[in-house]
Design goal:
By secondary structure, this protein is of the alpha+beta class. It has 13 helices and 25 strands. Helix 7 packs antiparallel against helix 8 and helix 8 packs antiparallel against helix 10. The N terminus and C terminus are likely disordered.
């Protein structure tokens, strides 16, 4: 037995010596007296206990976890010399504040990771600040970059050292490499487009996506809604996995989701009707697209902030059969009509008024030969569409809180409607709503009828300074854009909006009227 123990001891000694581990016969007190900057073990031993370098594979994301002050090395071996290598990194989780401790949005900036990238012929090289060709901080949870050349790729992800009295936890992230011969990479974050808030009431909200491709037949985006004060998710707002893995208050499952081509023009968009929201509450919402190269890394669109109304006077309606472009809160009945009954009442009332106009229009010369038509640039269909849009916008007023709760304190473009006061008497006699603020229709809605319909109809809009401001809100034509209406609008507009701000419409309209006149005059003389 003694002989066996001796043999095992010799083998253990030889194995340690082979790995560079040295035995020392000094007393323990002397061993403990290690000077600052020295290591108790040989450097070769320290290399053994460091984290191994992660080898990345093309098209497959890799999970990485980091603690405070830690660095993770990663490498990728190029497959072809002339390919471009795209690197995507997205933070899924980050340390959280100690329970009970209040932190600000600026405090989260101290948690940003650092991404270092190096394209080197030396496979033993490490990506460090001194030699990195790519040196980026993670912006709102993501880094996206590319490497050209013929060398393999070395990557380092560096975590900052945080104050343990303020923060706790680790970072987790996903890293994806795509080696492509053509520029068919995707974006982790789209800077434009995304999601828009159409309107809210005290318990629901209506959100609309950016235009989606015409060949898409199923809703492509997933929705995530968070409390408006969630600073953690706000600091990672460009990260797909952070949004997906966070504890969202509302998701796709809590909304009625559909595709529509009726709002903001004839192009298809995804519509979200959120229910069971809290009154007078602010939320932040994001949509993401998971249809990318990897299930763990997707595309995020810019988030929005929206708020519910305080009062129950306004009720959100949408998807009306006749007034299909109406998608906003309307004055509701004090007798608590259901949402569907309220929608049906407004739609039927407006359609019955349109019937008489349509009969009159059939007597006009707007669908005849262009030589005898009132203008060669318009037809009965143009007139009919403009009048319908005007009628829906005036017969179905847009309603908001008397305090403008949920959309700020700006009351531009609104008019106060006390009890027994409304745009039309039917709302007073049949709905009898409590006091509310009405967001006035855009004056352009009225002007379009004058421009598109025969003068024989004798349709006239009020003049600016002589009744216009009491019935309509006048804004520049260049403001009839998505960018304007995604914020606090100062008038209610039905119809298609421009992607970008339109040119000076005052000059354009004047020139158009002149061209109409001259062209019509010439044709009548021929």
């Amino acid at each position: 037995m003694k002989l066996l123990l001796y043999a095992l001891s010799v083998l253990f000694y030889l194995q340690c010596a082979a790995q560079g581990l040295k035995f020392d016969n000094r007393p323990s007190k002397e061993l403990d007296a290690v000077k600052p900057g020295q290591h108790r073990f040989d450097q070769s031993v320290l290399a053994i206990i460091q984290r191994d370098t992660i080898a990345l594979e093309n098209g497959t994301s890799e999970s990485v976890t980091l603690t405070s002050g830690q660095t993770q090395q990663l490498s990728y071996s190029r497959q072809k010399l002339d390919n471009t290598i795209y690197a995507y990194a997205t933070v899924c989780n980050q340390p959280i504040a100690i329970e009970g401790l209040t932190v600000s949005a600026s405090d989260y900036s101290g948690l940003r990771l650092q991404f270092l990238g190096l394209s080197s012929a030396d496979n033993d090289a490490k990506a460090e600040e001194s030699n990195a060709s790519v040196n980026k901080e993670f912006e709102y949870g993501i880094v996206q970059t590319s490497f050209n050349g013929t060398n393999d790729i070395q990557i380092s992800v560096v975590a900052p050292s945080y104050d343990s009295s303020k923060w706790t936890g680790t970072w987790s992230l996903q890293i994806l490499i795509l080696e492509l011969s053509t520029a068919t990479n995707f974006a982790l974050f789209y800077e434009q487009g995304g999601l828009y808030s159409l309107d809210t009431d005290f318990e629901s909200g209506l959100l609309l996506s950016e235009v989606i491709p015409t060949n898409v037949t199923q809703p492509p985006y997933d929705l995530f809604v968070f409390d408006g004060s969630n600073l953690g998710i706000n600091s990672l707002q460009m990260s797909y996995c952070a949004i997906k893995n966070a504890n969202a208050q509302f998701t796709q499952a809590d909304a009625d989701v559909s595709l529509t081509g009726k709002l903001w023009g004839a192009k298809t968009r995804q519509l979200f009707f959120l229910k069971d929201l809290s009154a007078a509450t602010e939320y932040q919402a994001y949509i993401v697209n998971s249809e990318t190269y990897d299930t763990e890394i997707g595309t995020v669109f810019p988030g929005i902030t929206f708020a519910t109304k305080k009062d129950e006077t306004c009720r959100l309606v949408y998807d009306l059969e006749f007034c299909s472009e109406v998608a906003y809160a309307v004055p509701s009945s004090s007798s608590a009509l259901s949402r569907d009954a309220l929608k049906e009442w407004y739609d039927n009332t407006t359609q019955s008024l349109f019937h008489g106009f349509n009969l009159t229009l059939q007597l006009m010369s707007c669908d005849v030969n262009e030589h005898v038509r009132y203008t060669i640039m318009r037809t009965c269909d143009n007139c009919r569409d403009s009048y319908k849009r005007w009628l829906c916008g005036t017969m179905i007023p847009r309603c908001t809180d008397t305090s403008v709760g949920g959309v700020g304190n700006d009351t531009s473009g609104t008019i106060f409607r006390p009890v027994n006061s409304s745009r039309n008497d039917l709302i007073i006699t049949e709905l009898a709503p409590d006091p509310y603020l009405e967001l006035l229709p855009c004056a352009q809605t009225c002007y379009s009828v004058m421009q598109d319909c025969p003068s024989d109809l004798q349709f006239q809009c009020p003049i600016n300074g002589k009744g216009l401001n009491e019935s309509y809100s006048l804004i520049a034509d260049s403001d009839l854009s998505v960018q304007y209406f995604q914020h606090r609008p100062t008038c209610n507009f039905l119809g298609g909006l421009q992607k970008n701000n339109a040119p000076d419409a005052n000059k354009t309209n004047a020139l158009t009227l002149v061209m109409f006149f001259l062209t019509t005059l010439i044709l009548h003389q021929v």
